Amino acid sequence: MSGGFLPEGLTPSLLALVLVAALAAGWVDAVVGGGGLIQLPALLLVPGLAPVQALATNKLASVFGTTTSAVTYQRRVHPDLRTALPMAAVALAGSFGGASVAALLPASVFKPVIVVALVGIALFTAFRPALGEVTALRHTGRRHTGTALAIGAVIGFYDGVLGPGTGSFLVFALVSLLGYDFLNASAKAKIVNVATNLGALAFFVPHGSVVWGLGLSLAAANVVGGYLGSRTATSRGTGFIRAVFLVVVTALVVRLGWDVWTENVRG
After folding, report:
1. Where are the bilayer-spanning segments (predicted)?
2. Domain residue spans in the chain?
């Protein structure tokens, strides 16, 4: 499949809608992850765009937004890179592997499991109000590093295969398994998310799946959203991020749950 510059049939009004979605996705991604919930469905509205092209183009746009967010967090929060960078390296490899599987396995295989996981995450977070308020690391030394690498590998693979909610999964894992507060978890998640996007692109670009003109247009909107979102998150703090996290996870449950239900009805 060869990626074009702009899809045929993309009207100015539809392009405007997709750009607004990319701006909103960049903001949500920067705060707590889950921007794919907005951006990927918008891309699937574009006539003639195959699902793999939508996924690949989404990754191109997202890598610009997540990089902007990561840089902004780094300047304002100064997350510890000794955890974030090894996680990012493993996540990049996992995402490349996931992307190579994406063309072979339908998303319907994963969606029911993801919905159940998201429901569990939402309930766990909602009923533990102190979760992620302050950083209280659960592990140190090799165990801390090993847990971080495992998180990066598993979530990186998921991002390559499907993607929506990757940032939210990263934030939750960093809060619940490693003991970071929501602000520091979001800062680290952005660094890892840059790597997962790059890993997927390393597979998609040589296969010609990226629609470059559309992807770069969305990237510009994603950058603006990512910058605004990361500044909002760092100024409002952990409580704000936790609230947005619950809203985004609930929206992911509704969206993916609806997909599972409609696919079963059609089946």
Report:
1. 85-103, 109-127, 148-180, 200-228, 240-258
2. 12-266
